[in-house]
């Protein structure tokens, strides 16, 4: 391990405390000059480390997507990249290279993020974008995986930030009427066993940023959780909290909690499915996570896929 990484581990274990350079040097069996050099390197990497003359160093904030920080937070192996076209593509590449699930891939920016139905997902600096690869054996109810991911994100955000969230069926998280989280799930089928081999859950969170950076055409629909300022929670902390919640939800009954957060229920909607649009009323959600729609004339459908938009009379 590099001296820089060893110094970071010491500062992380004493986060918020002042640690003398001599104490760090003694614990690592290196010189104070090596510690000073390592601290400068960490500051260049983006770590907020203040130097108190005659006292030592204080790690004020660790919102850096580094392996040392993330491995201490995540319940599963995690790979970090500063920027990528898509963390889902990165995850698939790692699978092809023989990396075993479960694991996660996290990035600070994407330039090719994807949403549902082939849409692009705006993924600017200041957000956190990650994909979680889960073995099929750990997913007892594959049909509910996307719904569980939505609820996991909702739970983690509310616990860490105090915001109240709402869920737009099936997988978007809203705060104050605007979208802050998007989720996309892909399954990998084992043809020999005719079952789910693995699933990749891609999650994008618009954590902090400037609202003026949002493309004009989606500015009334999307928002940053913390606009014009820094988030009190780091990207790694939020991503790891969502990951932990997602694994904890598997095999439990959570559909009632999801129903309570799903604001689409009870509203008139437009259903977009297979290129066709139909107006209807969302009157409920069944135990499989299907949105229950009643169309004019009395026809009913349990919607398992497709898109819904809110219809105002």
Q: What does the model show?
A:
The protein has 313 residues and is α+β, with helices and mostly antiparallel strands. The protein has helices at residues 3-13, 21-28, 32-44, 67-73, 87-96, 145-161, 235-249, 255-261; strands at 18-19, 48-52, 56-61, 78-81, 103-107, 128-135, 166-168, 172-175, 178-190, 195-205, 208-209, 226-227, 268-273, 276-285, 291-294, 300-303, 307-310. It has a 7-stranded mixed beta sheet with strand order 4-5-6-10-9-8-7, with helices on both faces. Strands 16-15-14-13-17 form a 5-stranded antiparallel beta sheet, with no helix packed on it. It is elongated. The model has no long low-confidence stretch (mean pLDDT 89).
Our Rg estimate from Cα atoms comes to 22 Å
Mean pLDDT: 89
Q: Number of DSSP helices?
A: 8
What proportion strand? 25-35%
The class by helix and strand makeup works out as alpha+beta
Report the sheet with the most strands, covering strand number, pairing sense and barrel closure.
Answer: 7 strands, mixed
> Order of SSEs, N→C?
HEHHEEHEHEEHEEEEEEHHEEEEE
- Fraction in helix: 25-40%
Sequence of strands across the biggest β-sheet:
4-5-6-10-9-8-7
Could you list the spans in which at least 5 consecutive residues all have pLDDT below 50?
A: none
Sum up the overall morphology in one term.
elongated
Give a count of the beta strands, DSSP E runs of length 2 or more: 17
Distance from N terminus to C terminus (CA atoms, Å) equals 63 Å
């Amino acid at each position: 391990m590099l001296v820089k990484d060893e110094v970071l581990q010491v500062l992380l274990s004493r986060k918020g405390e002042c640690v003398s350079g001599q104490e760090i040097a003694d614990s690592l069996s290196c010189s104070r000059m090596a510690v000073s050099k390592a601290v400068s390197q960490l500051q260049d990497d983006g770590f907020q480390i203040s130097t108190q003359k005659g006292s030592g160093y204080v790690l004020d904030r660790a919102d850096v997507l580094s392996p040392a920080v993330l491995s201490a937070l995540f319940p599963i192996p995690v790979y970090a990249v500063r920027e990528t076209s898509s963390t889902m593509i990165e995850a698939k590449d790692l699978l092809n290279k023989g990396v075993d699930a479960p694991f996660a891939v996290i990035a600070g920016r994407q330039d090719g993020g994807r949403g549902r139905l082939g849409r692009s997902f705006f993924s600017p600096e200041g957000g956190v974008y990650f994909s979680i690869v889960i073995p099929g054996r750990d997913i007892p109810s594959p049909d509910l995986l996307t719904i569980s991911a939505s609820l996991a994100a909702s739970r983690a955000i509310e616990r860490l930030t105090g915001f109240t969230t709402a869920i737009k069926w099936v997988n978007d998280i809203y705060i104050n009427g605007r979208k802050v989280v998007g989720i996309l799930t892909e399954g990998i089928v084992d043809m020999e066993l005719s079952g789910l081999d693995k699933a990749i859950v891609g999650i994008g969170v618009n954590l902090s940023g400037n609202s003026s950076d949002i493309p004009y055409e989606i500015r009334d629909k999307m928002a940053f959780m913390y606009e014009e300022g820094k988030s009190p929670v780091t990207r790694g902390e939020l991503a790891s909290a969502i990951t932990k919640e997602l694994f904890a939800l598997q095999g439990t009954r959570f559909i009632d909690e999801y129903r309570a957060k799903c604001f689409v229920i009870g509203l008139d909607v437009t259903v977009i499915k297979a290129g066709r649009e139909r107006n209807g009323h969302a009157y409920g959600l069944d135990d499989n996570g299907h949105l229950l729609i009643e169309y004019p004339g009395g026809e009913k459908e349990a919607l398992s896929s497709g898109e819904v938009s809110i219809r105002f009379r």
